Each structure stands twice: as structure tokens, then as C-alpha cells.
Amino acid sequence: xxxxxxxxxxxxxxxxxxxxxxxxxxxxxLLNASYSPTxxxxxxxxxxxxRAWREKTGTPVTIHVSNGGSSAEARAVIxxxxxxxxxxALAYDVDAIARAGLIARDWRSRLPDGSTPYTSTxxxxxxxxxxxxxxxxxxxxxxxxxxxxxNPKTSGGARYNILAAYAWALKANGGDTDxxxxxxxxxxxxxxxxxxxxxxxxxxxxxxxxxxxxxxxxNEALLAIAxxxxxxxxxVTPSLSILAEPPVAVxxxxxxxxxxxxxxxxxxxxxxxxxxxxxxxxxxxxxxxxSVAQKYAARFKPVPMVSVDHDFGGxxxxxxxxxxxxxxxxxxxxxxx
Length: 337
Fold this sequence. Notes:
This protein is α/β, with parallel strands linked by helices. The protein has two domains: 10-118 and 245-295, Periplasmic binding protein-like II (D-Maltodextrin-Binding Protein, domain 2, 3-Layer(aba) Sandwich); 120-244 and 303-336, D-Maltodextrin-Binding Protein, domain 2. It has helices at residues 39-57, 70-78, 91-99, 112-115, 156-172, 177-188, 198-206, 218-227, 252-258, 261-269, 274-282, 290-295, 308-312, 315-323, 328-336; strands spanning 4-5, 29-35, 62-68, 85-87, 118-127, 147-148, 193-194, 213-217, 233-236, 241-244, 248-250, 286-287, 305-306. Strands 5, 6, 8, 9, 10, 12 and 13 form a seven-stranded mixed sheet that branches. The protein has a four-stranded mixed sheet with strand order 3-2-4-11. The protein is globular. Residues 1-26 have low confidence and may be disordered.
């Protein structure tokens, strides 16, 4: 098929305490560069944070958000987008900004859980009735099945999709890497278009009617179902998935220039508060705070997962092996056309 390319339960957190009493003099606006599926979450969170900030300091704050594919947002920051904070899909994209000298290399140690205040995983979204009988990864490469997934060159979320598929194929084939690559090759033959971002891929599936199955982050799949009030789509959970850990970080060079460090640090730390974690769960991401996770246990069911750090040697290695020019994705993608 010819394809077009378009550019486990977390431990309880220590209490997060933020003092607002010294913040009144801080500048009153902030820009968050975020990956595309977080739009609804940050609309809700920004309103919560603005209210808390004004109540404690008497100073209004305006939060601006730049949404796009995770890697595209990282590149925009590197090229001059004056984001005070980033909330991206994967650590590799934050590390890219750090390598450009805009974020300190120790950014992971600044907040709990490696600066990842929420998690997600990869599931399948199918049309109501699941007429193609999609149950697990092997079903995605059956004749007549059309798959929607975004482009891992521009979408950080898409990289999790590819790694999850490869992890299943590797396990199913007794660790045979050639057979795992062959599965990816067959899978990509079922993909008619690689959208630039996870959100665009979701819209292609849910609004444009493209494909029989969407490989999606769990939060995107749950949101799609909520938007149609449970009618039109179903979630299928595969037998093996991957732990998605979207990180957040202050962009040091920007906040130093703009004088917004205190505001930016408070903005990220409140994500870990009970109110922040409640909003995270309400917006379909898996919360880190154990008490909130327990409250939403029926929504976020246990899924066997691999992780990038444990099973792929971390993002630097995974990026080089799979997504750098000439890597496994390029190899199987070219062969699938």
C-alpha cells in the first residue's frame, strides 16, 4: 500500500508544597510547549493554576500553550520558541532541548518520578462492533485491515506505538529480531498515511473515518470515546503494551531571561498536588498519586507493559536504534512501500 507521510501502578508521591507568598512580583504570563494530546488536560489545569495563583498572590497569570507533535515542539523551542516550560511525550525530546543548552542536564531530578507527573500506555481504538475482530497485535496485519498511527519522526507518541509493536513481536517470536522487524514491516504496509502528531492521527480515525483501528495512547482513546458519549468506538487492550512517561521541565534559559522561574517551577509542581492529579485522572492520563490512582482504578486497568528504560536501554539508545536516519523504522518503512 502506498503511504503518504505528513509532516504498572506508580508509588505514592511525597507531598508537594508550594509557597505562593513570595510570588507576587513574578511576571504574569507563561508559555507551555506541549505535545498535541494534552490540549484538554492543560486547558483544565491552566484554569486551576491561574485561580490558585491569583488567590495566593493577588496577581493574575495568563497561560499560553503551543500544541503540536512532541519532536516538532522540541525543535521549535530549540529554534527560538520562548517556552517557559515544556510538557512533551518523551524524555528524548527534553534531552534534545538540554543538548541545545536551553535546559539543565539534571532536569529529571528536579521533580518526582523523573519529572513525569502522569503516565499512559498504548491501546487500540476500533469502531463500534469491532467488525474486523481486532483483539491483539497479530490482527493488525491481517489482509483487509487498515491501521492509523502517526509519524515517529515528528510525533513522540508514535515512537511508543512502534516500540510497543516491536516488543510484542519480539516476545511472540522468541527474541528473533528479524521476525520482529518483519512484523513492523507488515504493520506499516497497513498504514495509509502517517500524520504529523498523535492528535492528528486520532482526528483522521475519528472524524475523517480513515482506517479500521487506531494505535493510540490510552488517554486519546478514552477521550475519543468520551467525546461521542460512548457511542461509535471501543477500546481493545493488547496482551502487551508499553509504559508511556511524558516528562515536564522548566526551560532554564527562557525563564532566566524572562524572570519567570518561580512561576514556571510552581506551575509544574502543582501538577503533583492532589488537585493536579485529580485533573490528570479526569482527563484520562494515569495519575502518579496513589490515592487518586486508586479512585480511578476501574478506568485505568492493569496492562502488562514493557518500558523504554528497562527493555530498550533508555531513549538515547532507542532513538539511535529505531528512529535515527537509517534506523529500524526507516528500514522497515522503506521496505513496506
